[in-house]
Amino acid sequence: MSFTLPDLPYDHNALEPHIDSTTMEIHHKRHHNLYITNLNNAIENSNLEGLSIEDLCKKHSDNVAVRNNGGGHYNHSLFWEILSPNGGGDPTGKVKDMINSSFGDFNNFKEKFKTAAMTRFGSGWAWLCQVDDHLEVCSTANQDNPLMPGICNDSSNILMGIDVWEHAYYLNYQNKRVEYIDAFFNVLNWEEVNNRLK
Questions:
Q1: Does residue 82 surpass a pLDDT of 70?
Q2: Contact 53, 77 (CB under 8 A)
Q3: Alpha carbon 46 to its chain's center
């Protein structure tokens, strides 16, 4: 079984002005697609072929090609799902209650999340994860993610993540990563974040 590029749940221009159409198209059709191509090539005719992307990340991240390209596929697939042209605003539902109990309030959470994203040197991701009955923020380098052992908390359930590789924002925001992070919160799909809670 080969992995395939998932369709976006919206048009490339649907997140404008927060994330521009050109960036979305290049990010989705070129960057994400290349991770999938490289991953398929890496696992073809091996004992890893046929495993789910989650199993590859959890159990085979010691394989560099799987770690980089499998991580890239998993991370981007999640990223597209947690964005929405109808997103933004304050969190709702159970995730709102868990943010308040874990961080004090939404503003405290945003600051912690922004700090994780801003202080990630070079390329990587910042994450919000559910760990048992509370939430935690962490960040990872490159295409690593909290499913991989020893990265954040090994029992993490990933709720959302922001891509802070320059290809995710440089056309529109150049080196102003903080403006991109602020824009991300305007298109964040809290309904999908809630759906990912266990």
A1: yes
A2: yes
A3: 27
